[in-house]
Write a structure and sequence with these properties.
The protein is α/β, with parallel strands linked by helices and 340 residues long. It has helices at residues 26-38, 80-84, 99-104, 106-127, 161-180, 206-215, 235-247, 266-277, 305-311, 319-331, and strands spanning 17-21, 41-46, 68-72, 89-92, 132-138, 183-189, 191-193, 220-223, 229-230, 232-234, 255-258, 264-265, 283-286. It has a 7-stranded parallel β-sheet, with helices on both faces. The two termini are 34 Å apart.
Length: 340
């Protein structure tokens, strides 16, 4: 699709001090690359929780002159306080995202997605009170949509523990924004894909599973009849939105959906992914697993008109183009599943 007539990505962040939580993961490392290329001073905080997909290799190809420091710690660790001093922008990407894992161990999800973030916010208000904080949240806070596309006024009725905890995390960020005059912005993401996404572990989204199986020439298994629909946003488009939100004073205290105008069935997404990999593989539909039925939300599409209006953001990358570049990223790296 053609690039929309929106304002370009945020002005240069050269010289800005930015802290990125979850910065060794998929979305976090992508924004670190963008910031480093702009000349920003970046501090990465990542606990490297094994099942969350953080990987030091995600920053291996940074330019040698990049100003990036890495602190391996939980975001609630007191050691993070020193890293926050003098910070201009906080991009808060850390968190647990598995819906099924949240149901299996709800207290751990609460600990990772709420308690740790409140501890972090306490440190932000004490040590970086003038910083802009951009939180990446999830469409899962809406639960099962009553209409499509879903706008920010849609009721928030999560169907799993993860959705409830993510919603609570949002509310804490906005509360700290209003109570302590922090500039806090919430971005609710739909299905995100792209380079550096963790492929080896199930349970963190269907797209990395599709990519892994396509790279290996294996069949892709769909739950149900494959007609369920999703909008998918490339990680580069998500990073654009994060930087725009950090740069826009009018975004403070606001919630924005990040969606895509293309609503594709899961079977179409699977076929396009296999075509990009060029390694064959069948597509098979199976009944929904019993443990997933209660937390499935059905079809989803996010209405991003508010982000377009206030941030000048709209997705620029079609799924067909984005999945081709994503597959190329893994094919070119020896540590990807394509080489196993």
């Amino acid at each position: 699709m053609s690039p929309p007539a929106v304002r370009p990505v945020a002005p240069s962040l050269s010289g800005a001090r930015v802290l990125v939580t979850g910065g060794l993961g998929f979305i976090g490392s992508t924004v670190v690359h963008r910031l480093a290329a702009s000349g920003a001073d970046v501090t990465v905080v990542d606990a490297l929780v094994p099942e969350h997909g953080g990987d030091r290799r995600n920053l291996d190809d940074l330019s040698p002159d990049s100003r990036v420091d890495v602190l391996v710690a939980d975001i609630g660790d007191p050691a993070v306080a020193d890293a926050l001093v003098g910070t201009d922008v906080v991009l808060n990407v850390a968190g647990q995202m598995s819906h099924l894992a949240s149901m299996q161990d709800p207290l751990r999800d609460l600990d990772l997605n709420v308690r740790a973030h409140v501890q972090f916010l306490e440190m932000v208000r004490a040590h970086a009170p003038t910083a802009t904080v951009v939180l990446t949240s999830t469409r899962q806070v809406y639960g099962r949509p009553s209409y499509l596309p879903v706008d920010e006024d849609h009721p928030t009725i999560p169907v799993d523990v993860n959705g409830i905890d993510k919603l609570a995390c949002e509310r804490f960020h906005l509360l700290y924004g209003s109570r302590y005059d922090l500039r806090a912005v919430v971005l609710r993401l739909t299905n995100v894909y792209g380079p550096r996404q963790h492929l080896e572990r199930d349970g963190i989204g269907f797209l990395p599973v599709f990519v892994r199986r396509a790279l290996l020439g294996e069949e892709i298994v769909l739950f149900g009849d494959g007609s369920q629909q999703r909008d998918c946003v490339h990680v580069d488009d998500v990073v654009d939105a994060m930087l725009l939100a950090a740069d826009a004073p009018e975004a403070s205290g606001e919630i924005f959906n990040l969606g895509h105008p293309d609503l594709l069935s899961l079977s179409t997404i699977a076929r396009l992914t296999q075509a990009a990999a060029g390694r064959g593989g069948a597509i098979r539909c199976v009944p929904w697993p019993e443990e997933l039925v209660p937390i499935d939300i059905g079809s989803f599409q996010g209405d991003f008109s508010k982000a377009k209006r206030l941030l000048g953001w709209a997705p620029r990358i079609s799924f067909a183009d984005g999945i081709r570049s994503t597959i190329g990223h893994y094919v070119d790296r020896s540590w990807s599943p394509s080489s196993t």
